[in-house]
Amino acid sequence: MTKLPFYKRSWFLWVITILFTLFIAVWQRSTGPTYPKKGQAEIGNEVIKYKLIRSDEVEGETVETEIAIKAPENINGSYIFKRYKSFDDWTEKPLERRGDELILSIPRQPKAGKMEYQISMTDGLHTVKFPDEPVIMRYKGVVPKLPVLLPHVLMMLLAMIFSTRTGLEAIFRRHNTFRLSLWTLIFLSIGGLILGPIMQKYAFDAYWTGWPFGHDLTDNKTIVAWTFWLIAVIAVYKVRTRRVMVIIAAIVLLAIYSIPHSMMGSEIDHTKTEAPKTEVNE
Fold first, then answer.
1. 186 forms bridges with which residues in the sheet?
2. Residues 141, 57: contact at Cβ < 8 Å?
3. What are the pLDDT digits (tens) for 163-210?
4. If you compute the radius of gyration of the chain from its CA atoms, what whole number of angstroms results?
5. Residue 25, domain member (yes or no)
6. 123 and 59 co-located in one domain
């Protein structure tokens, strides 16, 4: 019996797959549009570090989202905000001093509502506005962690792990391609087509906002990936040596996971439901 090179052995392929998948998962999460916007602003001799949130839950004890930025006593400023995709004018308010922090308070919005905001700080001589473009913050409902959120994340993570592992199985022409393909489809079906819509309902009050009902990229990515894997499972079931479709499906899912999470997600477009503001000439 010929001994396989270590890079073709199952244990090695699993290790590479898991490490690679975890890297992709962390990268996707940290580059998404709901990940906090981090940076720093130089005001005279002072360096102000900030972490501006871009996602919040609609439930809470207050009607506002508070964001704190540490700043010396000689620094003050203001901030502007308005509803995203609306005809609203910018509202400007002064930053509130609380000890060593400056606080901005953004009015909470309904599920899928968005607010955009920008900050201006000064030491009396120098004024800095940051970030360069207004931050867009999306609001969502609370998703139950144990029965919905955690199983969804686990299923989608397993789908990615098994997809990558199945792709390697097909590339190296090993004998478990069909079984691994089937597990990939199962995990993707549970995580993406069952738990995904349930989580979407809790978060944005709609089960599905992708094609043909909307343009939600997360929903669209899910159905594209699931379709490719369904075709791959059927193909390899009929002819166990037909591995090309499996490799294609694995590449498609990898490409989809490379797209930052929550891009082009659910949102309220006020410009479609409200009339533009008009000036009244006296």
1. none
2. yes
3. 999 999 999 988 899 999 999 999 999 999 999 999 999 998 889 888
4. 24
5. no
6. yes
Q: Are the CB atoms for 68 and 95 separated by under 8 Å?
A: no
Do 129 and 184 lie in one domain? The reply is no
Query: Which pair of structure tokens corresponds to residue 245?
Result: 């479709």
Token pair, residue 11, equals 């244990």
d(CA 167, CA 177) in angstroms, rounded, equals 8
Residue at 97 is within a domain: yes
Q: Order of strands, edge to edge, in the sheet holding 114-122?
A: 55-57, 127-140, 114-122, 76-83, 91-94
Task: Find residue 43's DSSP bridge partners.
Answer: 46
What does pTM read for this prediction? 0.85
Q: Give per-residue pLDDT as tens, 36-62.
A: 999 999 999 899 999 999 999 987 666
Q: Which domain holds residue 118?
A: 37-140
SS3 135: strand
How far is Cα 177 from Cα 168, in angstroms, rounded to an integer? 9
Composition of the chain by helix, strand, coil, percent to 5 = 40, 25, 35
CA-to-CA dists, residue 21 to 25, 161, 211, angstroms: 6, 6, 27
